[in-house]
Amino acid sequence: MTKQSDSASDSSKTARACACPAWLPSGASLGFIVLRLWIAIRAIVTAVEKFTGTKMLQKPLLDEFGEPDINGAMVEVKTKVYGLEHYHGMAPGMEESFRAEPLMPGWMLTAYGYALGPLLLITGIALFLGIAPRITLFVQGLIYMSLTVGMIMLGAQNEILGTAMLGVHVIMIALALKWVDHNRWSVCGCCAKY
Fold it and tell me: Which keywords does this Swiss-Prot/TrEMBL entry list (predicted)?
């Protein structure tokens, strides 16, 4: 009876093992790639948005049929644009609040603002391509920790929510670091180890 039971259990295990094809990556590998891509895209888009500004453009006034006004009337439309000249490491309102903080020296804030966007962009692209994921994840973890310090110093209700969201980012990065050994995709095989 026991032998029959063991035999049935073994065949059940074999059937379950055969259900997953050998070419399919492990759950940890798939989990890591999802986390890696999410964190990378989040960093890239955040960095790119730091190069946005607005520009007033003149456009023809449209009538009720969507055609340009026959009198040639023009309207000014605020348009979102991207460019190096629009770079801002922090939102202007937030930067002003930080500058009022006695614990935040002005020179440090200026240097941080200049470094934040490029750091997010470089680590985001590197992580997306699978280049040195261990190092890029660690650097991104430090970036989100530094942002958390700033949020805590501001202390308002919106900043408390921001602090919680940054905490979620740090947890995701820590989880990705735990799974980094399961990284299977990279543009550079040697770089994937770091």
Answer: Membrane, Transmembrane, Transmembrane helix
